[in-house]
Amino acid sequence: MIMLNHSIAKKAIAGILAAILVAIGAILGWTLTQPAGNSGELQSITIKPGTPTKAIAEELEMQGLIKNSLVFRVAAKLHGVENSLKAGEYAISANMPVRQMLMIISQGQTAYQQFTIPEGYTVDQVAILLAEKKLANPEKFKEIAKDFAPFSYMTSQPNSRYRAEGFIFPDTYRVAKGITEEELLTMMVKQFDAKMTPDLRQRAAEMGLTLREVVILASLVEKEAKISEDRPVIAGVFANRIKHAMPLQSCATIQYILGYPKPELTIQDTQIISPYNTYQNMGLPPGPISNPGSAAIKAVLFADETEYLYFVADKQGKHHFSRTYEEHLAAIDQVQI
User: Fold this and answer.
1) How many Cβ atoms from other residues are within 10 Å of residue 122's Cβ?
2) Closest C-alpha to 223, from 250, 200, 203, 257
3) Backbone angles phi, psi at 55, to 5 degrees
4) Would you say 215 and 297 are in contact if contact means Cβ atoms under 8 Å apart?
5) CATH classification of 33-110 is 3.30.1490.480, yes or no?
6) How far is residue 171's CA from residue 190's CA, in Å, rounded to a whole number?
7) Which long-range contacts link 63-72 to residues 24+ away (Cβ below 8 Å)?
8) What pLDDT, in 10s, does the model give residues 278-324?
């Protein structure tokens, strides 16, 4: 009887312990699914490379994003991600369950994404870049860009392609995921507005140019120049041709019409009927043909004073400048050698 009672007692104790463990597991499981608070406000947390899980958990607890750092560490271990939490900057809120936080950090779902718009990109090219980064629907981006003009100087002629063309400032941007196409455009044209300092605006006024005219000319310079030192000289050539009532005859405007950079244009190309064709139409095209950077804009505002009226690029992209058409023809022969 004594032996039987002892066996029963052991079983009873084992059952109690099992029940306790189940209860602890249930409590722990419940804890893992319960957020630390009700606030959905996103807080930024930066995890540097090599940061241990313990330090990450303590930082989350200190910011009030989790209830207990130990629970976070146990959860990380149970989910098999203890050693795979990735460095980066994350947006975490107190109403996120620990499981969700672990998924975000272990999968490297950083809060922000960085992208760079190169100088001279068109609206079409920017749309493709943003689509590749999974930040925008390219067709929606282009549709909004057609009439997007939050600043008065972005007025356009009826036959211009995009009112936003030329004012999307080439730069490196850091954006939150989920940003809309309109928010992207707003951010980029605001950057242009900020880069156009009072001094630059004053210089444009002194030259008798509107900001839009400056940007149109800068967009031509941006697409024509392959070497930085050529920019102010090319800008000077365009200024001289306008002064002498000569068509600008910019190959870059034909390429804009075609939609791709054709290395060598034909006579037929220069005869395409389009308001952007500066071989057939006098003066500036109806809008910018690219989004120029600061260097191209400053090249227009501080163009070289020169007597040149023509230029042609050699195979290395270096431009050769001429005063007369005869000199220009000789330069063309020279660069083709």
Assistant:
1) 22
2) 250
3) -70, -35
4) yes
5) yes
6) 12
7) 64/36, 64/37, 64/94, 65/36, 65/92, 65/93, 65/94, 65/96, 65/101, 66/36, 66/98, 66/101, 67/31, 67/34, 67/36, 68/31, 71/28, 71/31, 71/32, 71/98, 72/98, 72/101, 72/102
8) 999 999 999 999 999 999 999 999 999 999 999 999 888 899 999 99
- pLDDT tens profile 150-159: 999 998 777 8
Residue 205: count of CB within 10 angstroms of its CB: 11
Q: Where are the domains of the chain?
A: 33-110, 117-194, 204-335
Place of tokens 């059952």: 15
Say how far apart CA 23 and CA 29 lie, in whole Å. 10
Exposed e or buried b per residue across 180-193, where buried means at least 16 C-beta atoms within 10 angstroms of its C-beta: ebeebbbbbbebbe
**Amino acid identity for residue 158 in this structure:** P
The structure tokens listed for 221 are 């310079």
